[in-house]
Amino acid sequence: MKHFLTILLILTCTASFAQVSNIDSLTNEPLNALNNIIQGNSSKNITIGAYAQIDYNQELESGVRHNGNMDVHRLVTFLGYRFDDRTHFVMEIEYEHVSEVFVEQAFLNYKIKPNFNVRAGLMLIPMGIINEYHEPPTYFGVERPNLESTIIPTTWRELGVGVSGSFPSTSLKYQLYVVNGFSGYNGSGNFRGSDGFRKGRQKAAESFISTPNLSSKLDYYGLPGLKLGLAGYFGKSQSTLFDGLDKDNDVMIDQADSSVVSIAMVGFDARYQYKGFTARAVVVNANINNTDEYNAFVGSDLGSRMFGYYVEGGYDVLRFFKQKTDKRLDVFARYEKYNTHEEVDLIAKNESYNRTDITLGLGYKIAPGAVLKADYQIQKNDASGSKDKKVLNFGIGIWF
Question: How many CB atoms lie within 10 A of CB 115?
Answer without folding.
Answer: 15
